[in-house]
Amino acid sequence: xxxxxxxxxxxxxxxxxxxxxxxxxxxxxxxxxxxxxxxxxxxxxxxxxxxxxxxxxxxxxxxxxxxxxxxxxxxxxxxxxxxxxxxxxxxxxxxxxxxxxxxxxxxxxxxxxxxxxxxxxxxxxxxxxxxxxxxxxxxxxxxxxxxxxxxxxxxxxxxxxxxxxxxxxxxxxxxxxxxxxxxxxxxxxxxxxxxxxxxxxxxxxxxxxxxxxxxxxxxxxxxxxxxxxxxxxxxxxxxxxxxxxxxxxxxxxxxxxxxxxxxxxxxxxxxxxxxxxxxxxxxxxxxxxxxxxxx
Amino acid sequence: xxxxxxxxxxxxxxxxxxxxxxxxxxxxxxxxxxxxxxxxxxxxxxxxxxxxxxxxxxxxxxxxxxxxxxxxxxxxxxxxxxxxxxxxxxxxxxxxxxxxxxxxxxxxxxxxxxxxxxxxxxxxxxxxxxxxxxxxxxxxxxxxxxxxxxxxxxxxxxxxxxxxxxxxxxxxxxxxxxxxxxxxxxxxxxxxxxxxxxxxxxxxxxxxxxxxxxxxxxxxxxxxxxxxxxxxxxxxxxxxxxxxxxxxxxxxxxxxxxxxxxxxxx
Amino acid sequence: xxxxxxxxxxxxxxxxxxxxxxxxxxxxxxxxxxxxxxxxxxxxxxxxxxxxxxxxxxxxxxxxxxxxxxxxxxxxxxxxxxxxxxxxxxxxxxxxxxxxxxxxxxxxxxxxxxxxxxxxxxxxxxxxxxxxxxxxxxxxxxxxxxxxxxxxxxxxxxxxxxxxxxxxxxxxxxxxxxxxxxxxxxxxxxxxxxxxxxxxxxxxxxxxxxxxxxxxxxxxxxxxxxxxxxxxxxxxxxxxxxxxxxxxxxxxxxxxxxxxxxxxxxxxxxxxxxxxxxxxxxxxxxxxxxxxxxxxxxxxxxxxxxxxxxxxxxxxxx
Lengths: 295, 266, 318
Hints:
The structure holds three protein chains of three kinds.
Chain A: H1 3-34, H2 41-58, H3 65-89, H4 97-119, E1 135-138, E2 141-144, H5 145-167, H6 169-179, H7 181-186, H8 191-217, H9 223-238, H10 243-263, H11 265-268, H12 271-282
Antiparallel strand pairs in A: 1-2
Helix pairs in contact in A: 1-5, 1-8, 1-9, 1-10, 2-3, 2-4, 2-8, 2-9, 3-8, 5-6, 9-10, 9-12
Chain B: E1 4-5, E2 20-31, E3 34-45, E4 49-53, H1 60-67, E5 75-80, E6 83-84, H2 90-97, E7 98-101, H3 113-124, H4 140-150, H5 165-177, E8 183-187, H6 195-212, E9 215-219, H7 223-229, E10 232-237, E11 240-245, H8 247-252, H9 254-259
Parallel strand pairs in B: 1-11, 4-9, 4-10, 7-8, 8-9
Antiparallel strand pairs in B: 2-3, 2-5, 5-6, 10-11
Helix pairs in contact in B: 3-4, 3-5
Chain C: H1 2-25, H2 32-55, H3 66-81, H4 87-109, H5 114-134, H6 136-139, E1 145-146, H7 157-180, H8 182-192, H9 194-199, H10 204-230, E2 232-233, H11 240-253, H12 259-278, H13 282-296, H14 300-315
Antiparallel strand pairs in C: 1-2
């Protein structure tokens, strides 16, 4: 185990962790502030990825198409999220949680087929822009550029979200809604639309994450379930509604995976679930979530 | 505030058993930094029908929750018939013979009135571990009897959620009495009832208490009710028992007036 | 009022008798394909009814019932596939394994509520999914186990049919008895009002735990029966989508009636069978169906039917 390998694994693990983080940010925002568990999260993610791929192809001749496509994927995911929220989630806000799970679960099926119709069943990937390809030499170590870019981007997203929620006006609205929905509506906030907006924001984040991942992991059938499960694991370990928790959890999972595969490859796939189980047993509110009373 | 106890004179009581049924010893309850109950001590005699009054936030419901096991006390003891029940789970306390009704209606909404009472009786008798026998016919007689005494026989097959508020209050009371307890805690049994209904309810409580030889502790805000039926009144203020006595004594007490009755109109 | 209830009881006995007769006589009338479909239906009905003991009767959601299903199926399947034990031993072992799994998972899960409960169940079922899906050398991984040998007398579809329906039927009867027992009443009580249930003497945790174990037990049997039918076991048995199917079937038929999950299972597979004949876009249609049912038909089809029937029976003069 040379230092080179260790550093490489760390970078690999961190970037894998950032992938998880980007899978989870939208989910945790929606769950934390709207208390909605969006099971269609994975599907929206997949749409974002496919959109990114398609836009990239169409705009291949335009300079900067990579970035434009990312932007379009974000917008597309947000719009899709808005539609879903208005049609499917709004009618059942007041009901028991089970209806929420079922309707978003139903949306998953609808999307699964729609995507099959529009994009077919194959896997798609693209190349990342030239300046991000290949390795970079950093103080004697050779590291893959794109992974580093991912790590940096993950932190940027985290900081941006943190600032937005805690410092901006709409962030205040979000925090208000999380705390007390009725009160907010009495204070003049148009709560249904605020909800829709937050939902769309969550989905925009999903679109961002999806687009960025395509060069690394490719988009294809099964992505929706994979992303959803990954997202679940991250928010459980990190804590419901906690952004910092999601980041922390993602990093831990990423690193554990990277090193786990080196030493005990067979079990590595199940490792995140084990952590999830342990956490749910002893600390169900996650690493950084708000403690709840255990019956 | 200091506790002042006036000497309690012998008062007339209807059908009393001798001896204490409940002994609350220096019970305190803390929520984080807040002391919701502070060294509350009192005893209940068997067959006694008494009340607890106090301004909102005094800790009356918290006290009930501690006595019935829904909250764990921070210190002190609760002794029911010579047994310390303060560490027991709520369902264990119920089985010992204590019933409780709630300030906010706590009915089984999806079940019918009959099923509400029937389930409560089955649970109180410890029959609910029975997995294979049909419950429909079980304890039918007792259920019908209790329904009759609560005046709910006609509504037996209606869903609990469909009843009028007055009937729901009766059902609430009925569930508390289902397992034939020796001691019942009634938390604002007349909340939301108009004057007529309140009178009926209080008469019902008195009647049942006499017939079943129940010891009853009532929390109520309606002063006319409290003063008319209670043998003893205890006043809770900011988590402390500041006065205990017969109604006349309570009416005359300056402390109580200062704290509570002064703001109340009778 | 009571006369109507008495009439209902008599007519439901008749209904059950007719249904049993139909089930018995069906193999003489229809072909093997229909019998296979019927078997799939009753298996799904059993799994969903098992889930409904928690969902409809306790008011608790679990995302991981596929875990019990798969544990039962794979234990049974593996023992037969590798010729480790004869049929009946494998059968009992499968049941015991699923029940043991429920005992273990339940012990951890009962401390939690709502979403945490649901997700922990999911986590456990995902562990099973990972194990059966990636342990290629033993479980065949993604390909699963194919050609599991069952009792030779069960190869003819007719025999298999009677076997499956008998076992599933017995389990359903068990579930029904439990639901109608004082224990079942206590479950309804803790569903409707947990605080009050405590206050009348129900040990909430214990009762949920017992319900959980029974649920796992029956769901495991359903998994075993599917292996008997298909002679195969696959990782999909443990998947999140399978758990979702169980949930949906309960909602489709109605959570608050015993017949709900059963009706839901039959309707669901029937529609699946018919619609997949004409189009490959079953998930699309299913998805729309799920969303519409959840938003507009919350009592499920059985709830809907009961409302219609009671409407008519009220019209009848006594």
